[in-house]
Amino acid sequence: MKVSVVICTYAPDVFDHFVDAVNSVLAGTYDDVEVVVVVDGDESLFERVRDRYGRHDDVVVHCNDENLGLSASRNVGVELASGDVVAFLDDDAVAHPEWVERLVSLYERHDAVAAGGRMTGRWVAGKPTFLPAEFYWLVGVTHRGFPLEECEVRNTFGSNISFRKEVFEELGGFETDLGRAGEKNLQGEETEFAARMRTRYGEGVWYDPEAVVEHKVFDYRTKPKWLLERAFWQGYSKRVMADILPDEDGGEESAFLRQLLFAFVPARLRAVVTERTAASALQLGFLVALTATVGLGFAFATVDRWRADRSPEQHT
Fold first, then answer.
1. Coil, helix or strand for 262?
2. In a domain, 80, yes or no
3. Residue 201's CB: how many other CB atoms inside 10 A?
4. CATH number of the domain within which 54 lies
5. Measured distance CA(158)–CA(6) in Å, rounded
6. Is 133:143 a contact under the CB 8 Å cutoff?
7. Do the beta carbons of residue 288 and residue 134 sit within 8 Å?
8. Nearby residues of 282 by Cβ (< 8 Å), 6 or more positions away
C-alpha cells in the first residue's frame, strides 16, 4: 500500500517548520511513501522548495498559479498523488516516526476507507494556564473528551487524517467554500468531507491514538484575542457546514456540548471550590467565554444566511 502525504504551504516565514514537516515523513518507519508539496501561489517560495526537494525521488513539488486556499490546494495535492492512500499534514506539524505505519495498519486491519490519529501539542511559547483542555482543538491539538482508545469516529483533525484515493475519485474533493483562503477563516473542510464519505459508504474514520502528529503551537495562538476569534470562526463554520450538508445531524458536536455542560463544567466548578487557585478559576471562565463565542459565531452566520436568502427579494 503506497501512501501519499500532502503538505500545503504558502507562508515563507514558516519555511523552516515546513522543512521539519517534510523531513519527519521522509524519516518515518514506513517505506512506500511519497510527499506531495503544494505551494499556494508563491513563486519565490516554490523555488526554495524546489531547490530543497526537487531532486528527491520521493517528493513531488507543485506551485499553484495563484493563491487558491487550503481546501483547493489539498484537492490539487490529491490529483498529483500516486498513492493508494492520501494523508494530510500541516506545514507546521511534525509526524512521529511510526505515524504512516500505524495508519496503514488501520487500513489493513479494518478494511478502512479512512484513518487518522491523535494530535499533540508542541507548545513553542509554553502552554497557557488559562486555556482549558476541552478547547485544545482551537490550536489543532486533540482535546479532552475525544476518545482515548482505537475506534471509529466521524473525523480526526485535518493535519492527521487520510483517505483511500478512490474515495476522492468517487466523491470529488474538499469543499472549497470551507478551509482557509486569504482573509477567510472558515474551517472544517475535513469534517464536511468525512460526513459526505459516511453518507456514501456508511463508514467513518478509524482512529488510532498512537498514530501521533505533533502540532507546533506558536506564541500568537496562545493569545486570548486570537483564541476568541478562532472560536468565533469555528461557530460560523459550523453554520455554513449545516447549509452544505443539511442532512448531517451534528451528533458529535451535540455529544461534546452535553459532555461540556453536564460533565466538564461541573467538574471545573468543583475544582474552583476545592483547589481555590487562580488557574482553575481562569480556565472555568475562559471555557464559558469560548463556548459563548462559538455560539455567537453560529448566530452571526445564521443572520448572514438569512440576509443572503432575502437579498433577491430586495432587488426585485
1. helix
2. yes
3. 14
4. 3.90.550.10
5. 11
6. yes
7. no
8. 129, 130
Model confidence band, residue 179 (pLDDT cutoffs 50, 70, 90): low
Element (H, E) at 163: strand 161-164
DSSP state at residue 137: G
Label the pairing between strands 33-39 and 3-9.
parallel
* Full residue range of the structural domain in which residue 191 is found: 3-222
Q: Determine the Cα–Cα distance for residues 20 and 16; give it in Å rounded to an integer.
A: 6
User: pLDDT, tens digit, for every residue of 115-153?
Assistant: 999 999 999 989 999 999 999 999 999 999 899 999 999
Residue 164 backbone phi and psi in degrees, to 5: -60, 140
Over range 45-62, report the average pLDDT.
Answer: 96
> Burial of 27 by CB count in 10 Å (0-12 exposed, 13-18 middle, 19+ buried)?
exposed
Is position 260 within any domain? no
Distances (CA, A) of 112 to 152, 164, 210, 276: 10, 8, 17, 47
In a domain, 109, yes or no: yes
pTM for this predicted structure: 0.87
Q: Is residue 113 part of a domain?
A: yes
Q: Which three cell numbers stand for residue 86?
A: 492520501
Mapping DSSP onto H, E and C, the string for 272-283 reads HHHHCCHHHHHH
What is the C-alpha separation between 15 and 4, in angstroms, rounded? 21
What is the number of other CB atoms lying within 10 angstroms of the CB of residue 179?
26
Into how many domains does the chain fold? 1
Q: Inform me whether the pLDDT recorded for 84 exceeds 80.
A: yes
